[in-house]
Specification:
heterodimer, A: 158 residues, mainly beta, Thrombin, subunit H, 4-stranded antiparallel β-sheet, globular, B: 147 residues, alpha+beta, 35% helix, 26% strand
Chain lengths: 158, 147
């Protein structure tokens, strides 16, 4: 791969500046380095055909693609979390994570342990939030989900 | 009682499959857990509520709408890495289900199989494919991804 073909991107949201750039490609893997402002957050690897997606707060960056999520923080080694479905979106709530996968929506705690799950027999898209409701377009319907006020489960709303 | 019926059905089908001879794919396949797949009922949906069908989705051909980003990722694998196209991917997915139905995971009307696929590019990868048994009895493809 030529240097000019390598992936590189900078994302700016509010005062957060995240840089991600490809460092190598070998077989069916390619690796990326991630920076949050001037802090090096580490190196991660994704399948070669995937581009990295990002979700982040002021101090934590999640890079995800395919079945993998990486949690990156300054002065911590990158943490890798594997899932059994392809990920469509990762939403960071106050102390919870909503992970939209291709055939399910999972409510996770901050350690990415699953608290609850909504399953579908139709492919789910990334969705969008309208106030506190996550609206996801499936193939024949729109799925509307909310997180219960105690943070313990997902509620399907109509 | 159910176990006996399942065993008898399995024995019957095993005999039926043996009697059918070889050379073509058997119509009925029995999983390790005794579930039966009618291979003539396997379908891969074309466009439904969209201009794109499942094969378009997997090949990265969906360029508009909510599925475009997901489709692009799928296409990178099924088209870019494996080398499938509109004519080769559908039969390959059907064969992947048939070849791996013996060890399928079945939850309600959802069937999931994991097994290798070798694409026209020569690359072999383990793939999970998900299917559902519809009310009409067809075994309809939902999605697939490298595992």
């Amino acid at each position: 791969m030529k240097e000019s073909d390598k992936y590189s991107s900078t994302v700016i949201a509010g005062s957060s500046i995240i840089s991600i750039y490809e460092t190598s490609s070998f077989g069916l893997q390619r690796t990326f380095r991630v920076k949050l402002e001037s802090a090096e957050l580490g190196e991660i690897a994704l399948d070669s055909w995937r581009s990295p997606s990002l979700s982040f707060t002021e101090h934590v960056v999640y890079v995800w693609g395919g079945l993998r999520v990486f949690r990156l923080r300054a002065n911590h080694a990158p943490e890798r979390f594997d899932f059994d479905e392809e990920i469509s979106a990762l939403y960071l709530l106050h102390n919870l994570i909503v992970l939209v996968c291709e055939l399910s929506v999972r409510l996770l705690d901050n350690d990415l342990k699953e608290l609850d799950r909504y399953t579908s027999n139709e492919v789910l898209n990334a969705g969008a939030w309208e106030k506190d409701i996550l609206q996801i377009a499936a193939e024949s319907q729109k799925v509307r989900l909310a997180v219960a006020s105690d943070g313990s489960k997902l509620l399907k709303t109509d | 009682m159910n176990r006996i019926i399942t065993s008898l059905l399995t024995l019957f089908l095993a005999g039926f499959l043996a009697a059918e001879g070889t050379g073509t794919t058997a119509r009925f396949i029995v999983s390790d857990s005794g579930q039966v797949l009618d291979t003539s009922a396997i379908t891969i949906p074309g466009p439904v509520n969209s201009a794109f069908g499942k094969i378009d989705y997997l090949l990265g051909n969906v360029t508009t709408g909510d599925s475009a980003a997901l489709s692009a990722g799928k296409g990178g694998f099924f088209s870019g890495v494996m080398g499938y196209d509109q004519t080769t991917l559908g039969p390959a997915l059907q064969n992947q289900l048939i070849d791996n139905f013996g060890s399928a995971t079945i939850n309600g009307n959802r069937i999931s199989v994991v097994g290798p696929m070798t694409g026209p590019s020569g690359t072999t990868a383990n793939v999970l494919s998900a299917w559902q048994v519809t009310p009409s009895g067809s075994v309809s493809f939902i999605t697939a991804f490298p595992k």
